[in-house]
Each structure stands twice: as structure tokens, then as C-alpha cells.
Amino acid sequence: LEYVKRIDSRLYKIEEFKHGNQIIMQQKPLNDEFVSLFPMKEPSEITNVDLRLENSPEFEKQFTMFMKTIGGVKEKYFVKRVLSRLFTNKLAMNCSWCGLQGNFGLQKMKLFSLMNGVCKTIFNDCTDSLFEEFVKEWFKHGKQRYFRENKNNNVTSN
């Protein structure tokens, strides 16, 4: 049985390497203050995080490491997993890539250029266009996820 577990562990590592998701060893664990910033609930929190990314190389390193540890098997799943950790569905309802129709615009945010960079590092064939498409799609369905989430919460609380 131990032999099978070792083989299973090795296969898992090979699969991760094959998909570009090398195991990431953190140099320093993420601090509580950093972790408490996510998921973001208000547009002002997005602006705050983006300013910190612009002004603090240490915060940028932590943010990059945070995204790398989330991982994903393919580009689409990486983007979905990271965005679901960064944004609440309620906030996602009021955001869009270009900021049209009174939504909070995300296109020029540093956090998305960093996320795109991490995605390209993990998945060599990821393009800007593909990354944007996945981000836009995730935010497009924010309202639907929010209402489904609330519907499920109401059902379980009754």
C-alpha cells in the first residue's frame, strides 16, 4: 500500500510539471494582513490593492506568490480560481473589463497585468487576448453567481 501511495505521489508531481504548475515553495508565509485583504468586497478595496502593488515591491511579491499558489490545470481555470479568491461575486457584479455602463473598470489595473504575467509564466501558450477573454467572461457572469450563491444560502438557512 505504501508503494502505491509513493507511485501516486510521483504521478501527481509529474502531472503538475507537465501542466506547467511546478510546486511552489514559499519563501515566507503570507501574513495575516495580506490574507485579510481578500476577497475584495468594495471598489475602493480594488483601488487600495492596486496602489499598494504600484508602491510596494514586497506587496507585489506576495501578490504574485499568492496567485502562483492558487494554480489551475489550464489558463481558464487558473483565471477563474484566482478571480474567485480576489473578488466577491457581489463586487464582480459591478465590475467589467472596460468599465462600461457605470461599472468599475479593471483593464488598466496593475493587478491584472501581474495576473496576466503569472498566467503566461505558468502556461507558455497563454496570450493577452485569451487572458482578457477569460477575465471578461468571469466578470460577465458575476451577477448570475451572486444570485445563485444567495439562493443556495437562503435554502440552507431555512
Automatic annotation (TrEMBL):
Name of protein: DUF4806 domain-containing protein
Family matches, as InterPro entries: DUF4806
Pfam family membership, one: DUF4806
Domain DUF4806: 38-110
Origin superkingdom: Eukaryota
